[in-house]
Write a structure and sequence with these properties.
Radius of gyration of chain B: 13 Å
Helix content of chain B: under 10%
Largest interface: A-B, 27 and 23 residues
Number of helices of chain B: 0
Oligomer: heterodimer
Low-confidence stretches of chain B: none
Number of strands of chain B: 11
Mean pLDDT of chain B: 96
Radius of gyration of chain A: 13 Å
Structural class of chain B: mainly beta
Distance between the termini of chain B: 39 Å
Number of helices of chain A: 0
Order of helices and strands of chain B: EEEEEEEEEEE
Structural class of chain A: mainly beta
Mean pLDDT of chain A: 96
Low-confidence stretches of chain A: none
Order of helices and strands of chain A: EEEEEEEEEEE
Chain lengths: 112, 118
């Protein structure tokens, strides 16, 4: 399974919205009705951290300006108002098809 | 708050075996999946494999022939071995937890750098 993100680089003005797209080569819709798609952010010098799982569920402590939408093969991470602390590389990941836990290439969000 | 800590040699010679351990503190191995992920410098994330607390494993097919994972519930640790390493195995290695199927890699270690060089 191949995960393709776009754009790979995303300069954003603070306070403006941002969107990152992730496309899977196979449907991530499980028979249980959930989409098996996660979003992670890796801030500079840190380990990755979970933002969104099951396509749209925010992980504990994640601000509500982050949202995940999409189904099947097309997904989007949305940030309603970018803050300086959001700088980092964002990855989508699928935990459904072999090889399990396939990551996208990453999208580098930077502040203009 | 559960924490993960990777440990092991930072330098491994080519053709030898890379061995890492992840120690879980503040929680238990039970009922969760435990993964290894690596990241070469300046590059993206690559999942190596995972182990369930009872020992069932899933490996990335690209590494399956060289990888072994094990769990030691008495020590609250799980481990990774990668055989016949080359310079391409040089990376930061992370261990991480999946609470349950579909729930994401929700707890990560800080990562440990492994360099393959003679």
């Amino acid at each position: 399974n191949v995960m393709t993100q776009s754009p790979l680089s995303l300069p954003v003005t603070p306070g403006e919205p941002a969107s990152i797209s992730c496309r899977s080569s196979q449907s991530l819709l499980h028979s249980n009705g959930h989409n098996y798609l996660d979003w992670y952010v890796q801030k500079p010098g840190q380990s990755p951290q979970l933002l969104i799982y099951l396509g749209s569920t925010r992980a504990s402590g994640v601000p509500d300006r982050f949202s995940g939408v999409g189904s099947g093969t097309d997904f989007t991470l949305k940030i309603s108002r970018v803050e300086a602390e959001d700088v980092g590389v964002y990855y989508c990941m699928q935990p459904l098809h072999t090889p399990l836990y396939t990551f996208g290439q990453g999208t580098k969000l930077e502040i203009k | 708050q559960e924490q993960l800590q990777e440990s092991g040699p930072g330098l491994v010679k080519p053709s030898e075996t890379l061995s890492l351990t992840c120690t879980v503190s503040g929680g238990s191995l039970s009922f969760h999946y435990w993964s290894w992920i690596r990241q070469p410098a300046g590059k993206g994330l690559e999942w190596i494999g995972r182990i369930y607390y009872v020992g069932n494993t899933d490996y990335n097919p690209s590494l399956k022939s060289r990888v072994t994972m094990a769990v030691d519930t008495s020590k609250n640790q799980f481990s990774l071995k990668v055989r016949s390493v080359t310079a391409e195995d040089t990376a930061v290695y992370y261990c991480a937890r999946t609470y349950g199927e579909g729930y994401g890699l929700d707890v990560w270690g800080q990562g440990t750098t492994v360099t393959v060089s003679s």
